[in-house]
Amino acid sequence: MSLRTSAWQSRLIAGAAVGAALLTSACSAATHPTDGKSATTGPVRNGGTLTVAQTSDADPGSFLKTSVGNILSEYTVLETLTLMDAKTGKPKGVLAKSWKLAPDAKSIDITLRDDVTFHSGRKLTADDVIFTLKKVRDPATGAAGQAIAEQITSMKAEGDHELKLTFSKPTPNVFDLFETAPILNPATYDDYAAGKVVDGTGRFVWKSWTPGGRIALTKYAKYRDAGNTHLDKINIEVINDPTAIVSAIRSGRAQYGVGVAALDARSLSKQPGYALLSSGGSAIPLSMDVTKAPFDKKEVRQAVQYAIDRGRIVQQVEGGHADATSLPWKKTAVGYDAAQAKHYTYQPDKAKKLLAKAGVKGATFKVVTLNTPEATSIFQIVKNNLAAVGLNAKPEVLSATEYDERIAKRDMGTPAVLMMNSNALLPASAVASRPEFVPEDNLLHVKSPAYTKLVQDVTGASTPAAQKTALHDYNAYFLDQAFTVPLITRPTLTVHSTSVGGIAPTQAGFLNLGQAWLSEPDQG
Question: pTM for the complete prediction?
Fold first, then answer.
């Protein structure tokens, strides 16, 4: 599934369903790191084996798809051209030493580092980048960045470490593509695609994988900066039961866990020796099919948004670690408007007046929701809020697999859906790829020349001033039409022992363990 069908987001959703806390975990303010780094109590120590646990099995061969099973290994074994800084929203070089985006954003010149080798020993070249981007562009790959890569009309190597990309239109969001496109070795790609060999350039080598059991990573001794790789080994244990992950962390058999249930994460983080790590984030909108009654009337969609007590969701479901908002974008997005973000506030009386204007009273409808503690808890608040204004919402609870299948078919089977999507993408990438936003074959069946034009303006804006204007105009229409307005946005929080340091979150919520360290000797 490509970004055209929102593979990146749907795979993150799948993680929520199996673990309940990869995309949840409310916690106490006292233990929540605000800088995106893990809290630690001891000094950096070289050596040792870090044991981490996750609820999903690995998916070698799917690194270009950003599979949730690779959340702990992808950026530890493989590397991208750039990664977005979670604080500033600006790209930082990884394999790219420097770059120059043309003023019209229709081309980019990239200079690669000249000291990079694959784990198999071959030096990285510009041809490897071109090979990888061609694979991303190919619909058969199902890569996360396909929608952006499709804009590339020319890829030209200008020496071993220089290349030029040319685009069919302004593509200032090209760094979203780089974020999700780890560079692969053409010589080992067939084995990679078959899940046999993962030949990266990162600090750790993919040593072995036991399906459903363990991924074993070892330090890459020839890494260009190996002196700053602290661990000798990383073992990623697949533990399907979130409660068992908590037990493993408590006993010291694991030092970090992804997929712990929200209440367990909150409880564990309050105890001495444990902390939570903030990474990535998600927008959770209530979306409505504009072709199905009663949501074929704009006033009804607006009434629903005014009826919901977002502040209650923030406090009761997310433990205060979320933002009540009407916009799905990160606050670092160029053109983010704090006033627009507050457009829909809790006004049940206004909701009742809008419903009366639309001639709707006592309507009953189904709402699709994922089978996770977070999603079902949010739905319960939504249900009660809607009942207070005379609307009767019934849940249709789906597994992540069922949810993904319906999104792919563009048929949710119900008038409304409580969605959960990463909000890591820039607006220009999101409106061109996420199924609830795209102007063609939209999940919510929004069809409007005006909307299509607004999307084109957002994706084509090449300067900050133009991006700001385009996003403001898009937001105004988006809020007025109210077909998929967020209820909240919130960070992803995971739990670890304070003996662990150096875990680096990516903007999308994945974790890079490459420079992690243990302040205490490992237990095994």
Answer: 0.77
